[in-house]
Design a protein that fits this description.
Helix content: 40-55%
Structural class: alpha/beta
CATH class of the largest domain: Alpha Beta
Bound molecules: pyridoxal-5'-phosphate
Shape: globular
Radius of gyration: 20 Å
Strand content: 15-25%
CATH architecture of the largest domain: 3-Layer(aba) Sandwich
Distance between the termini: 42 Å
CATH topology of the largest domain: Rossmann fold
Largest sheet: 7 strands, mixed
């Protein structure tokens, strides 16, 4: 009996060999970073803050950027290409006429899509002679990904981890340490900015903005160290386009094309990586695909103001034009910690401002989001990261709308990571024993 195709996996030689840089194709020029009116120039300091090659990529107007051969090998080692699934069982369970497809970024060695840029940044850092990388992490996924990338590249790695999350994810902490990273709860007593907050309150919950400031300061004070950022910036989204470029090829093999592209959005790296190759088709080839970013009501940055703001709490970065809630904002706790960031990447912010990007924000208690993720788990079998649960929830809600209207929409959603190290979060919200 002929069955509908359930998944498409590309052979290794079909993996994209170039990243897509959307900068030359945006509807208007991306507003450049700016310096604040007072204080020293953050823009002049950029070469000390970022890896040289990444800085070059950040402002490049080349549409396609070759992935170095050694990096292609590292992508293979990390298990790329990753499958695109047709969610046949979920469709059946929902009784929807929609055709649903999801990308399996959860097949990542550390649990998330973040390895796609972590191995690139670690690779370039080693090429440029650095011995250590520093960074912040929120949910812990980025810290783990960079610890992994650094270990493959033979670099040391120092992670500043938002304390509220550090405290409940002991297993992820141990994993980072097994990769050889040094992990600090942030605010820590290792940096000036950390100490100023830590001394007032040693139990300070911390925030991504504060942890970024600590990572930056640590790297600035050590010539052999360089800071790495896991989201928001143009070059990070570009590295992540490997997700969407693979997905496009896979859709061709399925003989289908998405009407709706969905993912969760914190700073924008998985959403951007997944969606941007399809945004290209809308901007350049007249496709009518719609895009929805799923967020939390504690950090609905796409509903903030579109203006220049700092990327970090201590104002060490240049000002970026983005949708922001303000870089000093305090956000309530959620289990999908990776979505707690005050600003959205400048590229996606511009697309939002031009009307290409819709958004939905889910309540802080996360009950509905996790209940919908459970339907995905029970029908498709994969345990999503709490952040990815937002992407799934949004896709399911859109599929249920199709059930009402009878529309046979094609819905593509990204499952950015797995949740095996996040069970305490699920247990708490879902009231499991
Ligand atoms: C970090 C993270 C996110 C959110 O960050 P983006 O940069 O917006 O992608 C989403 N999902 C997972 C699994 C993450 O680790």
């Amino acid at each position: 009996m002929p069955k509908e195709k359930r998944q498409v996996t590309l052979p290794p030689e079909e993996m994209p060999k170039r990243w897509y840089n959307i900068l030359p194709d945006l509807p208007e020029q991306l507003p450049p970073p700016q310096d604040p009116e007072t204080g020293e120039s953050r823009i002049k300091a950029l070469p000390e803050l970022l890896i040289g090659e990444c800085l070059k990529q950040e402002f490049s107007t080349e549409r396609w950027i070759d992935i170095p051969e050694d990096l292609i090998d590292l992508y293979m080692q990390a298990g790329r290409p990753r499958p695109l699934f047709r969610a046949l069982s979920l469709e059946k369970r929902l009784g929807t006429p929609a055709r649903m497809y999801y990308k399996g970024e959860f097949f990542s060695p550390t649990g998330s899509h973040k390895v796609n840029t972590a191995i690139a940044q670690s690779f370039y850092a080693r090429e440029e002679g650095y011995e250590r990388v520093t960074t912040e992490t929120g949910a812990g996924q980025w810290g783990t990904a960079l610890a992994y990338g650094a270990s493959l590249a033979g670099l040391k790695c120092t992670v500043f981890w938002v304390r509220a999350v550090y405290n409940w994810k002991a297993d992820r902490r141990s994993l980072m340490e097994m990769y050889g990273a040094e992990v600090n709860a942030s605010p820590s007593d290792k940096t000036d900015v950390g100490r100023s907050l830590f001394e007032k309150n040693p139990n300070h919950n911390g925030s991504l903005g504060i942890a970024i400031s600590e990572g930056l300061e640590d790297a600035k004070k050590d010539k052999r160290a360089i800071y790495c950022l896991g989201s928001v910036l143009n070059h990070v989204l570009m590295h992540q386009t490997i997700i969407g470029l693979e997905t496009k090829k896979q859709f061709e093999i399925f003989g289908d094309y998405p009407d709706l592209v969905i993912s969760c959005l914190g700073g924008g790296s998985n959403f951007g990586g997944f969606a941007i190759p399809f945004v290209h088709d809308v901007l350049k080839e007249g496709k009518k695909t719609k895009f929805i970013a799923a967020q939390s009501q504690v950090s609905p940055n796409l509903q903030g103001e579109y203006r220049y703001d700092f990327a970090d709490y201590a104002e060490q970065t240049p000002l970026l034009k983005m949708y922001t809630l303000g870089h000093k904002i305090e956000m309530g706790p959620i289990k999908g910690d990776g979505l707690r960031y005050h600003g959205c990447s400048p590229i996606l912010s511009l697309l939002r401002n031009k009307g290409y990007l819709d958004t939905i924000a889910y309540p802080q208690d996360e009950k509905k989001v996790f209940d919908l993720a459970k339907i995905f788990l029970q029908s498709e079998g994969y345990l999503p990261a709490p952040e990815s649960a937002y992407s799934i929830a949004c896709a399911i809600e859109e599929a249920l709308k199709c059930k009402k209207t009878g529309e046979e929409k094609v819905i593509a959603f990204n499952v950015s990571g797995h949740g095996f190290l996040d069970m305490p979060g699920y247990r708490e919200v879902l009231g499991l024993a």
